[in-house]
Write the structure tokens for this entry.
Amino acid sequence: MTTTLPDTLTEWIGNSLCTHPDSGVGVSELTGITGFQPFFVSLTLPYSAVRGEILPVVATVFNYLQDCISVSISYRF
């Protein structure tokens, strides 16, 4: 099975249950997988706006890479 994990730091934990007519019921142990993106930008926006209002838009850059990199961020309105 192949699936795409979310880009943000997310941990998924689960197990499975199966039944068989001869063997009965089986339950797996808990297992987990973590989705992680080493470099991303997160925007914090207000939940509402009024026309003509000045709003704060906060961009937070997360860099979990081993090296420093140059980044340029621009807003288009």
Q: What stands out?
A: The chain has one domain: 10-63. Strands lie at 10-14, 17-20, 24-27, 31-35, 39-44, 58-63. The first strand starts at residue 10 and ends at 14.
